[in-house]
Amino acid sequence: MQTKPISQRHGIPAKPASTPLPPGASGIGLVNSLEGVIEVALKNLDSAEAGLLRNDLILRLRLAGAAAAHPVNTPYVNTIPPEAQPRYPGNRELERRIKSLARWNAMAMVVNAQRNGAEVGGHISSYASMATLYEVAYNHFFRGGDGNGPADLVYFQGHTTPGNYARAFLEYRLEESDLHNFRRELAEGGGLSSYPHPYLMPDFWQFPTVSMGLGPMMSIYQARFVRYLKARGLLQTEKEPRVWAYVGDGESDEPEALGALTLAAREGLDNLTWVVNCNLQRLDGPVRGNGKIIQELEGVFHGAGWNVIKVIWASQWDELFARDESGLLRKRMDEALDGDFQKYTVAPGSYIRRHFFGKYPELLHLVDHLTDEELTRLGRGGHDPVKVYAAYKAAVEHQGRPTVILAKTVKGYGLGEAGEGRNISHQQKKMNEKELREFRARFDVPISDEDIADTPFFRPAKTSPETKYLLERRRKLGGFVPKREVKAEPLRTPRLEAFPELTKGSGAGEASTTKSFVRLLSVLARDPEVGRRVVPIIPDEARTFGIDPLFSQIGIYSSTGQLYEPVDREAGFSFYREAKDGQILEEGITEAGSMASFVAAGTAYANHGVNLIPFYIYYSMFGPQRTGDELWLAGDNRTKGFLLGATSGRTTLNGEGLQHQDGHSPLNASTIPTLYVYDPAFAYEVAAIICDGMKRMFGDGEEIMFYICLYNENYAQPPMPPGCEDGILKGLYKFKPGPAGKKHKAHILGSGSIIRSALGAQEILAARYDVSADVWSATSYKNLRNEALLAERWNMLHPTQPARKPWVAQLLEKETGPFIAVSDYMKIVPDQIAKWVPGGLTTLGTDGFGRSETRANLRRYFEIDAETAAVAVLHALSQRNAISPETVAQSLRDLNIDPEKSFPKIAAF
Ligand SMILES: Cc1ncc(C[n+]2csc(CCOP(=O)(O)OP(=O)(O)O)c2C)c(N)n1
Ligand SMILES: [Mg+2]
After folding, report:
1. CA–CA separation, 111 vs 95, rounded Å?
2. How far is the CA of 405 from the centre of ligand 1 (A)?
3. Residue 27 confidence (pLDDT) above 70
4. If residue 322 lies in a helix (H) or strand (E), which one and from where to where?
5. Which atom of ligand 1 lies closest to the CA of 282?
6. pTM of model > 0.85
């Protein structure tokens, strides 16, 4: 075994260098003494050994008492040295003018939006810090989709939209009236949405990003999805699109923002570029006042395996660094905190001289030749097009790893006293005349003194050099960005007849709705028309749901294939088969990541011109509850697909207890406007809903999604009764009428596996209490309610016309007797339709925290079992004076229900 440190094996002295460092020096000035070490390393060591050598050196520095930096960090300087910078290919002067006009118009949009009592707000300072980062990309990097390749997919930072709109205005894509209607979306002719919302501006925005943290994560899964499409031969073009994400430094605190970094590196996503706008501030104040966000992020990204490019200092500093022979300037850079740097942004040059350079007398000499005024103009890298261009070029040329550009900027750049670098900057929405004049002067905006107070928009003529230049640049790069276009061909989706196993019933056998769904998926994956378009997405629960046979049938996607012999190779169908063209996205334990894949797959019809059918199946408790904001984003993004909440129901998933047993997902899911929510009881219902959903989304092109509760309780699956399809899809149909010839009549609405409580109650009531209860399958309370709401709204607005009757009211008014609803969800789920049920609705449900127990005990505890349902029916009959209260009391004794039994605790006054 090799025990000697690697350095000693190659003749590097064992002891730390005896040359003492001059006081205060970082040692960087002694870099020449390391040349020998580097020479030896280059000649003798492979990359692994070189890594060991580095670790040896750090260890020895530490042992010698030096506070050696963590190896994942580099000094606080630009990664690309001036000598490695490429020539800037654009017309700097014209680009500066274009950028200045974008700055002005973006600012004017927000200031105008605040005027005249509108107070609809907007953000000035974030785009002010971002302008150069965007403009260099607009002029030189972002590819549009009109050329010979796919458009880049750009995740713009949510609250910099004024900058994007101002750009689109200069490009003659938007008009002045549009800018006037920023955040006035209900204005005549429509307005511009506050942030990137494809739902609101479906021809313009591709990705919603303003819920911080989600955009960055979505971009990683999008870039990986591009590779998936490519591997499966589904990408429409040879070239792959580049994915860009513009991220705030404050945004990086969101767990989702950095949570998937290792995936990007592991998958070698060199089609992904992140630009973190490190303006050192978030909303309230500094991101890391007492530290350095750029260094912290560098460590994180390096550790995760990304290529990191720091763009910290503008070109004015190059000359100072070149003369920094002692290394003191770099040392001072490393020492100064973000809080200090923020202060230097707002402070006069004299302060910078005294506090930053003045710490070391030698450093003061370095800037002797600069006036105080010139010191304030020593800029930050993110505002220097030359530095930004160099970083972008290096990023897009880098192979094998994703790249992050950490660009240092100033929040509110150019706003001066109105907010540059100040803690109030983020919220600044107003500018007084003096501030407007200063802004105009700083950026040479051609607005006259008479007009300036009105903050008019300004756009050069179509024939102006500026407009010609920017349009030509976009033409060369393949057209405008962002742009959303739906080009996908519709699919011929299978009809219900394709799934006889689900519609014919299980005969003497039993099956759960989950198992039935898996059967459907397996048949669907073989469908000649749509089979290849199916994208199953699973966060490590395939075996729980019995999907594992699909592993061998269609394979698990892996960019590297399967480099090992799977331990269960002999296990037949369920062995863990990874393949380069695998179809299943097995995401591991990340519901957030799985949702991101769901969105990527479900928006491929718009972003990649191909209709794909995502089926995301997961532990229902970790669905809308865990990733609700992503689900909201999915709606905004016009995502299409199926969400399968498996192991549904507070009591049907029985042993797992409080944090697993889900009694509210349909409620959470019902908050998403474009999401249809279904709680089917039987296999044929699942098939009917999925066939209809496929047709609507992928045949007819509706931009909607479906949530389906799937249960793991096995029971006999009945054959599909004739004529029920319409009711299944609308949300309610009579499944099994009660027996004829009984004295009393009642109706029980059941959902999911709990329809079995309704059927049990039906038997009890008929056998013991002379009640004929019809059992209904309530597949979607959300649908019923929404239809009723629309009818009511119409009635209110058309009072003199014959009133419309909600569909559910029409259906139920033909019946007599009380209505009782029972489900494995909170009572508020069926209560959604109570208002339109003739005579009202008695609801049984599972409010309260779950418990680990047997199904039978849980259903009694939550009072949704057959016996309690029977009592509820009797009680409702007694309230109508059809039977006596004593009969109800007797039924409690008959059915062994203790009126004083324990019950889940719920908050009440
Ligand atoms: C999830 C979420 N939480 C809070 C906000 C409100 N918000 C909008 S911008 C912002 C500060 C952003 O700071 P940073 O990411 O550094 O961006 P900057 O404006 O500095 O470029 C906050 C808190 C949000 N949009 N999303
Ligand atoms: Mg910030």
Report:
1. 24
2. 19
3. no
4. helix 318-322
5. 13
6. yes
